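dumping this here so i dont lose it
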């Protein structure tokens, strides 16, 4: 995957995370639990993509 593709995917995930956080503000407790699990998964994916992007650019992130 190219730097550009990785950056675009990272941007899309960031937007999804922002949207989920806004939805959580309006959600009831049951929906919040589902949103938290999805948010957790997206944040893990975001971190993975950020590391991948930095590796592609030659600047690895510390663990």
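and the seq i came up w/
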């Amino acid at each position: 995957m190219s730097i550009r593709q990785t950056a675009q995917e990272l941007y899309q995930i960031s937007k999804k995370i922002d949207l989920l956080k806004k939805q959580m503000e309006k959600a009831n407790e049951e929906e919040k639990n589902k949103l938290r699990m999805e948010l957790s998964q997206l944040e893990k994916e975001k971190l993975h993509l950020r590391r991948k992007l930095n590796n592609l650019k030659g600047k690895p992130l510390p663990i």
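Residues 17 and 43 are 7 Å apart (CA to CA).
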